[in-house]
Write a sequence for this structure.
């Protein structure tokens, strides 16, 4: 049984991708709108209080000056969206002496909300503040002490410091927003990589399941279907049952080994995520008992990647595949050209899978067809050719009438092409002119370089 997915990963996509949990952002004390309302209210109260304490400080009557002081604070509600108009009102209020509290807040807003996007505009606003708040009496210009005091209070404290503080806060906010956006982009990329890895893993598991189980189960179905015809012969029935038992045991053994490899491979890929996942999915198997290799001709055990199997291992595995198909009623012949040689384990496995998939397809689509398997060993390549003639009998239907006896998913040759490609070889498949089918594969005699 395949391992179940962690329900926590289903509830949290970040757990499924292996990403660290992001700390919950700290909620601000006030929303931007609430902060604007509080600031405007405080400035309004301060301006009204100052106007009441100095009723004749302004261009009009005392009550009119109080009203102007209150109105001059209201534009601060729009300081985030329109800092320049707010600053213009503040400078006008400062020039009319109706409120001295609006100008610092307006310059802070100019630096915080316009400075990060346009520093030139912020410095132009500072120049305008220098001009608008300059002394208007000749006595102030004639006294250096008065001029320095004016510059310190009216320009540095009311204009320059709030502007620079706002620019710092705005720039810091922009940098933090950029870092957050970059982190979110990296997280999205990691999630896409994890999803691609999961899709690749699912495809690999499907291919392994097909390769390991399909051939043996097909043989079981063929032999089980033949039991009805030989039920009167006790000896043949016993032999057929023994064949079915052997094929079923091999299928279970291969499936168990494959699941073990998948678990080990998942743990290894979790520690070495930078390495490719699908190149050698079964490269860490333990040695198998003698005779178990007949099910897949070398798909099970594998020593270290650089180790090689015996020179005739691939021939023996393919011969056993042919013998199994022959006992199932398929006339199969094997021809070997050149001297058998030791092959890297991935190449040997790919050659075995080519023959296995081809024979399975003959059982499914061309029952009883004469089949010829040829292995040609060259110094640098190994060529495998499987040719079957037209079917000798029609495709049998399932007992329940739900389709053919051996259904086909249509993905076997596609998965086989991918396996051969990973082994560094090429494969072609096409129908023949007499109603048969042909599969030709060329594999490197040396292990392909990464």
């Amino acid at each position: 049984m395949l391992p179940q997915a962690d329900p926590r990963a289903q509830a949290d996509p970040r757990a499924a991708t292996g990403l660290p949990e992001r700390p919950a952002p700290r909620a601000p004390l006030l929303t931007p709108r609430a902060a604007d309302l509080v600031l405007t209210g405080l400035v309004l109260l301060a301006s009204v209080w100052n106007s009441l304490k100095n009723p004749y400080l302004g261009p009009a009557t005392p009550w009119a000056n109080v009203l102007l002081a209150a109105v001059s604070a209201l534009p601060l509600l729009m300081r985030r969206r329109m800092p320049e108009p707010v600053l213009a009102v503040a400078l006008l209020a400062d020039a009319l002496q109706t409120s001295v509290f609006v100008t610092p807040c307006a310059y802070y807003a100019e630096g915080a909300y316009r400075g990060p996007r346009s520093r030139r505009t912020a410095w132009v606003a500072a120049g305008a503040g220098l001009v608008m708040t300059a002394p208007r009496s000749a006595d102030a210009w004639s006294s250096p002490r008065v001029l320095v005091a004016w510059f310190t209070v009216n320009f540095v404290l009311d204009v320059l410091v709030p502007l620079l503080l706002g620019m710092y806060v705005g720039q810091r906010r922009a940098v933090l927003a950029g870092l957050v956006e970059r982190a979110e982009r990296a997280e999205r990329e990691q999630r896409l990589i994890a999803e691609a890895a999961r899709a690749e893993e699912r495809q690999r598991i499907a291919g392994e399941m097909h390769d390991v189980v399909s051939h043996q189960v097909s043989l079981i179905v063929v032999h089980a279907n033949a039991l009805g015809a030989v039920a009167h012969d006790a000896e043949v029935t016993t032999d057929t049952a023994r064949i079915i038992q052997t094929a079923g045991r091999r299928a279970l053994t291969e499936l168990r080994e494959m699941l073990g490899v998948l678990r080990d491979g998942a743990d290894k890929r979790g520690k070495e995520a930078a390495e490719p996942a699908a190149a050698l999915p079964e490269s860490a198997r333990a040695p198998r008992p003698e005779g178990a290799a007949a099910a897949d001709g070398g798909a099970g055990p594998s020593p270290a990647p650089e180790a090689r199997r015996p020179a005739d291992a691939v021939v023996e595995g393919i011969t056993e595949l042919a013998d199994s198909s022959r006992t199932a009623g398929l006339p199969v012949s094997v021809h070997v050209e050149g001297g058998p040689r030791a092959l890297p384990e991935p190449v040997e496995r790919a050659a075995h899978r080519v023959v296995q998939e081809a024979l399975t397809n003959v059982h499914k689509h061309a029952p009883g067809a004469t089949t010829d398997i040829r292995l040609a060993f060259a110094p640098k390549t190994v060529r495998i050719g499987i040719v079957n003639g037209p079917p000798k009998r029609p495709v049998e239907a399932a007992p329940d009438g739900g389709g053919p006896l051996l259904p086909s998913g249509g993905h076997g040759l596609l998965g086989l092409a991918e396996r051969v490609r990973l082994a560094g070889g090429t494969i072609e498949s096409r129908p023949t002119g007499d109603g048969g089918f042909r599969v030709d594969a060329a594999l490197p005699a040396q292990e392909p370089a990464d």
Summary: The longest strand covers residues 381-388. Residues 177 and 311 are 63 Å apart (CA to CA). Residues 1-13, 272-308 have pLDDT under 50 and may be disordered.
